[in-house]
Amino acid sequence: MLKTKIAVLVSGGGTNLQALIDAENSGLLKSGEIVLVASNNPNAFALQRAEDNGIKAVVMSSEEALLQVFREEGIELVVLAGFLKILSPAFISAYEDRIINIHPSLIPSFCGKGCYGLHVHEKALEYGVKVTGATVHYVNEIPDGGQIIAQKAVEILEGDTPETLQRRVMEQAEWVLLPKAVEEISEKLARGER
Fold first, then answer.
1. How would you class 69 by CB atoms within 10 Å of its CB: exposed for 0-12, middle for 13-18, buried for 19 or more?
2. Is residue 137 annotated as part of the catalytic site, yes or no?
3. Which of 14, 77, 9, 67 is nearest to 38 (CA)?
4. 74 labeled part of a ligand binding site
5. In the chain, helix, strand, coil percent, each to 5?
6. What's the CA gap between 136 and 166, in Å, rounded?
7. Nearest alpha-carbon partner for 136 in 179, 84, 77, 94
8. How far apart are CA 184 and CA 178, in angstroms?
9. Does the annotation flag 47 for ligand binding?
10. Can you give the pLDDT at residue 114?
């Protein structure tokens, strides 16, 4: 069976990208292959992670240019992994139901415009919730508004700071959920299902 060709979009350090690379190396991600990493930030460490693992890395100059690269590389699935740019409706419709995102909360809590990175964990702590987590969802025109694919809860502990909570959500939820979801979707796409 042919593997689904995956592009990962990143803006920063690329810890979720690393979780996907590790999943591919361990055989957990076996139906998909990361063939491209793209970033809107030329200084993103994630680009170095890609190069260190023999994956083509590009800096995104425009959505049109990126879509052209996607066509050239035969990209079938797009994974947003800490990508801090809102994609246009035209870009999303070009890959309808083939763009997924990992968000560091249990959607519908602490999501939408302006809710990214540490802000999400700050809001969770301010609100006083006892449980947070991560969500993998399809991307549509509404920030964090697409259909939920998978969620995993993480307990908030006494004395948590936004930074300690962020780290635990990554380790216990994001790095577990995202590779699993990418494998499930890659397997369906490789079989010709949507």
1. middle
2. no
3. 9
4. no
5. 40, 25, 40
6. 16
7. 179
8. 10
9. no
10. 85
Lookup: tokens for 10: 């990143």
Name the pTM for this structure: 0.95
The predicted pLDDT at position 193 comes to: 82
Say if residue 86 carries a ligand binding annotation. yes
List the catalytic residue out of 103, 119, 121, 137.
103
**Residue 25 counted as an annotated binding residue:** no
Q: Whose CA is closest to 50, among 6, 89, 101, 93?
A: 6
Superfamily of domain 4-190, CATH level 4: Formyl transferase, N-terminal domain (3.40.50.170)
Residue 3 backbone phi and psi in degrees, to 5: -90, 145
Secondary structure, 3-state, 22-84: HHHHHCCCCCEEEEEEEECCCCCHHHHHHHHCCCEEEECCCHHHHHHHHHHHCCCEEEECCCC
State pLDDT tens for residues 55-66.
Answer: 999 999 999 999
